[in-house]
Amino acid sequence: MVCAVGWFAKPTHPNTANIVSSKYLREFLDEMQPDQIREHLRKFTRLPHLAGTEQNLKYAEQIMKEWQEFGLDSVEMVPYDVLLSYPNKSQPNYIAIVDQLGDEVFNTSLAEPVPEGYEDISNIVPPYSAFSAQGQPEGDLVYVNYGRTEDFFQLEREMGINVTGKIVIVRYGRIFRGNKVKNAILAGAKGIIMFSDPADYWAAGVQPYPDGWNLPGGGAQRGNVLNLNGAGDPLTPGYPAKEYSYRFSLEDGVGLPKIPVHPIGFHDAVHLLKKVRMNIHTNNQVTRIYNVIGRIRGALEPDRYVILGGHRDAWVFGGIDPMSGAAVVHETVRSAGRLLSKGWRPRRTIIFASWDAEEFGLLGSTEWAEDNAKLLQERAVAYINADSAIEGMYTLRVDCTPSLHTLVYDLTKQIASPEEGEEGVSLYESWHKRDNWTNDRDAPRISKLGSGSDFEAYFIRLGIAAGRARYTKNKKTERYSSYPVYHSVYETFEIVEKFYDPTFRRLQAVAQVRGGLIFLLADSQLLPLDANQYADSLRKYAQSIMQLAQRHPEEMETYEVSFDSLFSAVENFTVAARDFHVRLQTLNRVRVMNDQLMYLERAFIDPLGLPGRPFYRHVIFAPSSHNKYAGESFPGIYDALFDIENSADPEKAWEEVKRQISIAAFTIHAAAMTLIPPA
Amino acid sequence: MVCAVGWFAKPTHPNTANIVSSKYLREFLDEMQPDQIREHLRKFTRLPHLAGTEQNLKYAEQIMKEWQEFGLDSVEMVPYDVLLSYPNKSQPNYIAIVDQLGDEVFNTSLAEPVPEGYEDISNIVPPYSAFSAQGQPEGDLVYVNYGRTEDFFQLEREMGINVTGKIVIVRYGRIFRGNKVKNAILAGAKGIIMFSDPADYWAAGVQPYPDGWNLPGGGAQRGNVLNLNGAGDPLTPGYPAKEYSYRFSLEDGVGLPKIPVHPIGFHDAVHLLKKVRMNIHTNNQVTRIYNVIGRIRGALEPDRYVILGGHRDAWVFGGIDPMSGAAVVHETVRSAGRLLSKGWRPRRTIIFASWDAEEFGLLGSTEWAEDNAKLLQERAVAYINADSAIEGMYTLRVDCTPSLHTLVYDLTKQIASPEEGEEGVSLYESWHKRDNWTNDRDAPRISKLGSGSDFEAYFIRLGIAAGRARYTKNKKTERYSSYPVYHSVYETFEIVEKFYDPTFRRLQAVAQVRGGLIFLLADSQLLPLDANQYADSLRKYAQSIMQLAQRHPEEMETYEVSFDSLFSAVENFTVAARDFHVRLQTLNRVRVMNDQLMYLERAFIDPLGLPGRPFYRHVIFAPSSHNKYAGESFPGIYDALFDIENSADPEKAWEEVKRQISIAAFTIHAAAMTLIPPA
């Protein structure tokens, strides 16, 4: 019998004091260097590396080799065979204007003008909507704004326009493109065209690339148009796509649109005002993809996992999406390797992941989550996501689960602001100054997680505490969607180097945030997760969902809808969380209490899933049913409230609201129980 | 920092050596005494104590008080408000033979003849089918044997008899009565009568009660006729039935039959050969029930739970079902309390449960499992069930998960045979001699868990290692179903005392098995769970399910059905299990490896559930879809194979077989991964 690290221990500091406890943290953060990140980004953005292509496998092999050289304990390549979708090389996709004889009098462009320096590159996939149905529908074109639920409602109810049998054209932005396609299908459209409107993809006073970072008129946004709701590979929902896996037929696949879909740039969009014909020949095919998984074995708790994962596949070069993120992960691995060589070893196991096929529906990360679900649900402490590390030049942006808020604040106080003229200013201060959470507290804004990146299966399906961090724009003044060149050929190394982060200090700061989170989650004796913050957030969410219901005061009375049980559950949780953190001060069983913290997020998982969305199982957070990018709190109640507006049977609709309130109350009560002393 | 019990430790013995390691085990087993068990049984069988009645609450309060006196650390009463069903006191249920004028010319009896000594007892509920629909259907009677799927098929296909609009009469036995009712509904019957046929409820050469233990002709079997498939309270499936819980309407409740159902004895049954009228006025009502939960706090791993649970509610006195089991639990608690007073404290937490409303669909145990699911899935090591402790006078019967086999064998070698003339013979030897597992190994037979008692939610929904033990009849020579007086008024204290176990040594042996299992699971440093046994069982099940498929060799070729992936997964699992147990010999991280053992059973849970049965989630074991009492291995594959016989689209049906093979193979692969070193 050797000595008791892990089970019994009396720490000298309270929970947050963990942060200063490691003499290696500073060294780890300081090791991450702008020049190194620049190098990594340069190296992995020379060639297009779409998921399922030779070049993306080559980059995987290179990452694997370098992670091994950096000193990880193990690195492996993990393949899956998933459904991908590519344009047909011999029959290009385009939209044509047809005259009354049916002749095509104008065709949209077949490719984007290639940026300078990349003229000789082959294998640039033209703009397309991955997983579009094939077909050549022809018909009148109807403009439906952003293609949101409310846009279709307005068209039908207020303007009396029925789009059944029509082709709709919508502008990109505001919501996930897959939701636009779903709405168009529900409305009866036989095709959908999406375009990048300068109103949404043009920053004022900025030149188009290469003279600035705006989207040229010939540029267009690629992207998948699935409605997977967390299923991963459309043919193997719930299970990993391996050799022995049963695959559904394409007709039974999850989330595949039944109509042709195509994206165009605004130079083409201005022409399309009449009758058009879509010519779409995109093919679905089962294709091998590769995740790279690297590990550092935990010294004391090898069966507790902290994961840093981000994707590698890109629509073209991936200068921003995702390689600005992948370069940051690479640098984090390098820095961790350096520490290992100096004798450091984290308390818990760290897993680094380079995911494949994120752009095709978060496939690599979801298949790996499905493959390892049983291990992850017992052992995973946290998942930090590493997609694009920069989408603007203003300040830090963090989306994470409430239990990570305190850690994010504490950590960013130890990282320097990357902004010029802010020497000696912490990232926290710089961020706080630029994006104060003015509505209810004096602290930098942290948002809810939605979806649209690889954390989804970990957080929303499995209930693992999760977060993401990147550099962003000024939301108040910059109103364009994402960043202008998003998913176009103009996402190059040069756009980052010339415009977004010439010193690479912003990417360094993001590396330090992502890496620092991983470091502290893996190496602190007490897990730096904060149940009190969860309690605060639950109260806020409960108030706001109740306010939504209270827009219908008469119905609430008629149908006896009460939120009392929800607030009582939140109150229970608040007391349990407070008591838990008081006990943490005097704890003598580290592992027991760390397990309580680790499993707190899991406690919000309902194995029955949300209505109609079996892979979205988090009762507190889910992607909005109307916009996958946005996170909804109390999604079950929210959707039930949304439906009462459109229900033919209001009594039944309100019954569903009541049922969802009850499920939320039960789940929070149950989560509170996980925080009380276990026996 | 104190010393390292739990996390790091080097044991001197291999895994099974745990068993002899506790100096307290012998003392614990020896403390359990026949006279004490007789006392407990006497005490709790004086009055009828149906779920939801005053008397059953009184017994709950008495148990709570006595468990406190025995010395448990805490005992609490946990109420739920669930749907129960009672006969209408002012309008009795009965079946009438009607003549051509519609007059009732014969009525079945309204109650069983009350046994001697109990004449003054009120509140004996007459025989009825709990949750029957109300109604007075009238029609021709059709006899459908046991009412099994194959009985209805034979009637329809071979004999050309259609039961649509008819009242069917079936004999009790072979399958769970709820399955008979479901089959009758599917066949279109408008009512169903069930009777106890002497062929199934009469032991040769035995007198009817009170002169022997056979069922008198006026006796009848009560019982619920739900098809819950693990849902618990029909109105709150998936969630505990608390004040704030949303309740479905009766129409939307789970598993409630839509036709009247009634049980009769064989004295009445012989009359019913013509046209009958059923008069059923049974009411469903939400009623408060009470579980009693007692705890002994674990000294070293308070967050690891070992559970001994059994029900308390009875149809009438419950002399056998369940109080023979409850008396055994009571004695186990008393013995554990004695040990506590001598300074013993188990390593892990022990939870004792007296469940309510088992007879109404495992309601008390399932609601508590739903209430505590989040804690149980992270913390529960094992669940041992304690329903009726005796159903025959021949030998031991054990049904359990494969990982418990070794422990059961090791433990029963340390318990004395209760049989006369077997002084110095172990229970193991006595059992082995009487029920050798001759088909594939030389050891006493252990069976699969089916359902029909309170382990269901713990094992089949949550994936907690589970088992049950009782004294049973000689299956080879005694062909009657369960035991003759099952669920009748004749289940008294006296039937146990006079016939089943006059010395109470059989019940003592069962107490020692159930108690010993709990003791060793809670107190062994290394969990006494055996992954190798699971591997052996998986191979056996895989072979037998493949043989079932191979009855269709041509279709298997046509539809390319292969079991290779399943056998490859079993092989993987076998290697992982073997390596795991080799590593156990030299382990230095007890908690890490114990967690691997604890979570092994959990690894067989598929969160998506079995097709159409969301609360049956165990991929290896589930109650048969055709008989809830029986356990099916590879239930998903089994049901898919069953369906091909009746499918209009064989290709689709075989696709489902292939899908289920793939799910089973994936699950076993994934379970194997849980056994390899965690990092």
Automatic annotation (TrEMBL), chains A, B:
The record's keywords, sorted A to Z, are: Calcium, Carboxypeptidase, Cell membrane, Dipeptidase, Glycoprotein, Hydrolase, Membrane, Metal-binding, Metalloprotease, Multifunctional enzyme, Phosphoprotein, Protease, Signal-anchor, Transmembrane, Transmembrane helix, Zinc
Q: Name one GO biological process term.
A: proteolysis
Q: Which cell locations does it reside in?
A: Cell membrane
GO CC annotation, single: plasma membrane
Q: Recorded GO terms, molecular function?
A: dipeptidase activity; metal ion binding; metallocarboxypeptidase activity
Domain Transferrin receptor-like dimerisation residues, every copy: 561-675
Instruction: Tell me which residues make up the PA domain.
Output: 138-226
Major subcellular site = membrane
Cofactor requirement:
Zn(2+)
| EC number in record | 3.4.17.21
Q: Where is the Peptidase M28 domain?
A: 291-420
Reaction catalysed by this enzyme: Release of an unsubstituted, C-terminal glutamyl residue, typically from Ac-Asp-Glu or folylpoly-gamma-glutamates
Topology of this chain in the membrane: Single-pass type II membrane protein
Protein role: Has both folate hydrolase and N-acetylated-alpha-linked-acidic dipeptidase (NAALADase) activity. Has a preference for tri-alpha-glutamate peptides. In the intestine, required for the uptake of folate. In the brain, modulates excitatory neurotransmission through the hydrolysis of the neuropeptide, N-aceylaspartylglutamate (NAAG), thereby releasing glutamate.
| Assembly and oligomerization | Homodimer.
Q: Which family does it belong to?
A: Belongs to the peptidase M28 family. M28B subfamily.
Specify the protein name.
Glutamate carboxypeptidase 2
Which organism's genome codes for this protein? Answer: Lates calcarifer
